[in-house]
Specification:
Layout lengths: L8 H10 L7 E4 L7 E7 L2 E8 L4 H16 L17 E3 L2 E7 L13 H18 L12 H12 L7 H17 L6 E4 L8 E4 L2 E5 L6 E4 H12 L1 E2 L2 E2 L1 H12 L6 H27 L14 H10 L7 H10 L3 H11 L2
Antiparallel strand pairs: 1-2, 2-3, 3-5, 4-5, 6-9, 7-8, 10-11
Helix pairs in contact: 3-6, 3-7, 4-5, 4-8, 5-8, 6-8, 8-9
């Protein structure tokens, strides 16, 4: 989340009237993030989150709102844009789409502070998203498929300084490797695509809400899990086996991974690291700071993960590989398969 577009006094008056807020006492910019503009609105009727989509066009915004409405109807803990008095879920503001949702009071927990019970809760909720999402039949384009990430990298590669030579050698090799070995025939459905700690709200150990469905699409479930592992199970410069196990324990309490998904796990971790390395390079070199309160996330965080996953430096990868190699429970899987038979 971030704040790139300023709100006018006229707009705030219009929103107060259209949403029946009475008045908006305060509109506080939320500076964290790198994609959309977000404000906290304080009103006599409570707190609300105002979002301005900086990257998506109207059709993409409609698809995201439709997905959030579907998930909300199925009791999934996610934001849900409100309708104004004219029945609109969004409006145009300065050529961008603006929406308002109820603000959820909760606490974001940094990965190194996240307790094991919280990690299990994240795993369960992610699996619930995947299971519920099977009932969503509308397509949502994956803007971060491997082919598109490879194209993004080709676009940004020529803009990188000469001292990035070591980085480009690694990324060139990784693109070539994943092009040959990344598996595509795996279980797919609705995925979040960006399950980082700042997109999760807790109250104590209870998970209250999953935020920011900006990257949600139809994609591989294992990629979604790999992104959560990269985001939440990497602390102090290495992967934590205990964190990995608790996250996966929560996930498999709801949905069991197939053998093919376990086999693909290492490469999906690599692809997830590549994806966020490339998009952060793109954001920095192709979308330079224009004076707004823009926050550029450091590509090196995920580049270092990629180097560990490629076994170019130590960092707990060997323990993860062993856990993945032995993580598939044939008896549990066969029991589930048997229960699915008519």
């Amino acid at each position: 989340m971030a704040a790139y577009t300023e709100l006018s006094a006229d707009l705030l008056e219009e929103l107060a009237d259209d949403y029946g807020f009475g008045r908006i006492a305060n509109a506080l910019a939320i500076p964290q993030g790198s994609v959309n503009t977000n404000y906290l609105l304080e009103t006599p009727k409570g707190k609300y989150l105002l979002r301005i989509d900086e990257a998506k066009g109207e059709m993409e915004v409609k698809r995201e709102i439709d997905l959030l409405s579907f998930l909300h109807k199925h009791s999934f803990p996610c934001p849900h844009p409100l309708q104004d008095r004219k029945g609109r879920y969004y409006r145009e503001y300065r050529s961008r789409c603006l929406s308002v949702s109820k603000y959820t009071e909760g606490r974001m927990v940094a990965p190194h502070e996240m307790r094991m019970a919280q990690l299990e809760g994240v795993g369960r909720v992610l699996a619930e998203l995947h299971v519920i999402g099977k009932g969503y039949k509308k397509g949502i384009d994956n803007r971060f498929s491997f082919e598109r990430v490879a194209d993004l990298y080709n676009n940004v590669r020529g803009r990188l300084p000469s001292y990035f030579r070591r980085v480009t050698r690694t990324l060139d090799d990784e693109i070539d490797y994943l092009n040959r070995y990344l598996e595509t025939k795996l279980p797919k459905g609705i995925i979040h695509g960006d399950l980082f700690a700042d997109n999760i709200l807790f109250r104590g150990e209870r998970l209250l809400a999953v935020l920011d469905f900006e990257a949600a699409c139809r994609g591989k479930f294992i990629f979604d899990i790999a992104t959560a592992v990269n985001a939440l199970c990497f602390v102090d410069g290495q992967y934590s086996l205990d964190r990995f196990r608790h996250l996966l324990r929560g996930y498999e309490a709801v949905r069991t991974l197939s053998l093919a998904e376990w086999d693909a796990f290492p490469n999906e971790l690599r692809y997830s690291s590549l994806r966020f390395t490339v998009t952060r390079l793109r954001d920095f070199f192709l979308q330079p700071n224009d004076g707004a309160t823009r926050e550029h996330k450091d590509f090196r965080e995920f580049f270092e993960r990629l180097r560990i996953l490629r076994r170019e430096k130590p960092g707990g990868m060997e323990a993860l590989l062993m856990a993945m190699a032995t993580g598939y429970d044939y008896r549990k899987y066969q029991k589930i398969r048997a229960s699915e038979k008519p």
